[in-house]
Write a structure and sequence with these properties.
Elements (H helix, E strand, L loop, with lengths): L1 H36 L1 H10 L13 H15 L5 E8 L4 E5 L7 E3 L1 H7 L11 E7 L10 E11 L4 E11 L1 H8 L8 E6 L4 E4 L12 H4 L5 E3 L3 E7 L6 E8 H52 L15 H40 L3 H17 L3 H18 L4 E3 H18 L4 E7 L7 E3 L4 H10 L8 E10 L2 E8 L6 H11 L13 H12 L4 E7 L3 E9 L3 H11 L3
Parallel strand pairs: 13-15
Antiparallel strand pairs: 1-2, 1-6, 2-3, 4-5, 5-6, 7-8, 7-11, 9-10, 10-11, 12-14, 15-16, 16-18, 17-18
């Protein structure tokens, strides 16, 4: 931001300097035209330059001379920065300085003028610029710098080359343009001739010589190594005899940046001090009001729900907090009392249910006895069914809530064997699981409810081609188990409803269901929301349920269960 700001200022100054120098070029042309158009003034100037062979009669009386002096003063008034007018006779090689306080207005000042402008002796008829030089014609000019523009001077009627017309300009207005930007401007501005001679230098460092870094300056690069690494902006054209350059040393930009940063830090510190002062003032005012609320809260933490905050009957925010705190304690006390009674009644009900349950081990042993009797009587098929049922029941009695995938598949196989015995000609099933994944862990009884869901809703007793396929494979770091059937399928509306419920969090799912939602909730509770069930279905084509869980060993899943509790 600082760099762009400084470059913007430099570009504005360059534009202002260009306008000023263009105005001066125009002023010189206007002065010459006025001299050529006024025959009396031209003849008078010729006589003062000793060009008598080309001049006509010249008025010599004081009135006429004074009138010519007024006309010359009018020419000077075209630009208040004109310091001197000089005429050079190329034939006599004499230079005349216009002096408004002399009777004859001109003064032969050849020696001093040629010392400042040696190029006047050059016979070439090209116009040229005289770079900055100290004043030397009058004592009042010695402390300032000036520059000159030399134009050709002709005799109007014959276009005969007579010499040079030189206008000497001061630099006060150029410096004033720079000063208008005050301290905001960093670096320095240059006005140079096309040869690199210094016409104007805002830093006053390079007057009286050619700019030593002129060649580097002409590289037209944003960053140039001059006296030091600098940012440069230039402007010039083929028709303009001047080159304008703005130089911004990067050290000055860095210094300004440091000043800006320091100012920012100081402002930030003052602001922080003000904020802290206000904070401590406000804290001291409200601390007394807060203390009584904190005291009440500490009492509550100590399980003293009977404590209430004394009210002052004042209308402020802290009084409202005290009122609501007291109401909260009343509600909390009432809720605890109700919860205690409810929990007690719930425990009593559970005890009655347990008293009425059949001992599961007694049931398992009874099934084994029945199986033995059937096999003794030669009913092997019935014995096999009883054996599968007993094995299924025994597996469900195991305390472990995590088993290997192989154990869970065996449980599903026994369950399907029993069902298949009931509907031998109407139902078939296939189990295709990659052997390499059989050792991974899985939540116990997580596939059986999904199979049961199909047997309840998808199995059709009127068909003989009912088919259920269970497939398991590894997908990168996950296990994917699909349970697909060729049943009647699910309609789009119902399918979207089921998918929406499956996407809900465990707090929002249907806890009462022992089918899809219960399985999905158990998976998400243990492994996270990224896992669970997915469902695909088409009417009259069947339904596919996809179970996705991470690839983990049984002990890893048990450790995860210990962290979150029994799922």
């Amino acid at each position: 931001m600082l760099k762009e700001g400084q470059v913007g200022i430099h570009q504005q100054i360059i534009a202002a300097l260009q306008n000023t120098m263009n105005d001066r070029t125009k002023t010189i042309k206007d002065i010459l035209l006025k001299i050529y158009d006024d025959e009396q003034l031209f003849a008078y100037i010729m006589s003062m330059m000793d060009v008598t062979d080309q001049s006509e009669s010249v008025p010599l009386d004081s009135y006429e001379r004074k009138n010519m002096a007024y006309k010359l003063e009018d020419l000077l008034s075209l630009d208040p920065n004109i310091n001197n007018l000089i005429f050079y006779n190329s034939h006599s090689q004499k230079a005349y300085l216009y002096m408004y306080d002399l009777d004859y207005a001109f003064f032969d000042h050849t020696e001093a003028i040629l010392q400042n402008i040696p190029r006047l002796r050059d016979s070439s008829q090209e116009s040229f610029i005289i770079p900055a030089h100290p004043g030397g014609y009058m004592a009042s000019q010695a402390s300032k710098n000036y520059f000159d523009v030399a134009s050709n001077f002709y005799y109007p009627s014959s276009s005969l080359f007579l010499g040079r017309f030189i206008v000497e300009f001061g630099m006060d207005d150029l410096q004033y343009t720079i000063n208008q930007f005050g301290k905001d401007m960093k670096g320095y501005l240059l006005v140079l001739t096309r040869d690199g001679e210094v016409v104007f230098d805002s830093s006053s460092t390079y007057y009286g010589r050619k700019y030593p870094y002129f060649e580097q300056l002409r590289q037209s690069s944003d960053s140039v190594m001059l006296a030091e690494d600098s940012i440069v902006r230039m402007a010039s054209s083929d028709k303009d005899p001047f080159i304008y350059a703005a130089v911004l040393p990067k050290s000055a930009l860095k210094k300004q940046l440091n000043i800006f940063n320091n100012s920012t830090y100081i402002a930030a510190i003052i602001l922080l001090l003000f904020i802290f002062s206000v904070y401590f003032l406000v804290t001291s005012i409200i601390s007394k009001r807060v203390n009584r609320i904190v005291k009440a809260m500490s009492k509550t933490v100590e399980s003293n729900l009977a404590y209430r905050i004394p009210l002052n009957n004042k209308d402020n925010e802290f009084e409202q907090i005290a009122i609501h705190f007291n109401k909260m304690c009343d509600s909390l006390q009432d809720h605890i009392n109700k919860s205690y009674v409810y929990e007690l009644q719930q425990k009593i009900a559970e005890m009655k249910i347990l008293e009425n349950q059949i001992n599961p081990h007694f049931l398992y042993n009874s099934l084994e006895a029945i199986r033995a009797r059937l096999e003794i009587d030669g009913n092997d098929e019935g014995g096999e069914m009883i054996h599968s049922l007993a094995a299924l029941f025994r597996a469900s009695l195991k305390a472990d809530s995590v088993v290997t995938l192989a154990e869970e598949i065996d449980l599903c196989n026994m369950y399907l064997t029993i069902f298949n015995a009931r509907y031998q000609n109407f139902f078939h099933y296939q189990i295709e699981v990659e052997p390499s994944i059989m050792g991974y862990g899985i939540i116990k009884l997580i596939l059986q409810p999904l199979i049961e869901n199909y047997l309840m809703h998808g199995f059709d007793r009127k068909r003989q081609n009912n088919l259920l396929t269970i497939q398991g494979y590894r997908d990168e770091n996950d296990l994917r188990i699909t349970i697909a059937d060729n049943g009647s399928g699910i309609g789009p509306d119902k399918l979207n409803e089921i998918r929406q419920k499956l996407s809900l969090s465990s707090q929002s799912a249907e806890r009462g269901s022992i089918g899809l939602y219960n399985v999905n909730e158990r998976i998400k509770l243990l492994f996270g929301a990224a896992y669970g069930l997915e469902m695909e279905s088409s009417e009259l084509k069947g339904t596919t349920i996809i179970v996705r869980i991470p690839c983990r060993q049984p002990h890893e899943i048990k450790e995860a269960q210990l962290e979150i509790g029994n799922v």
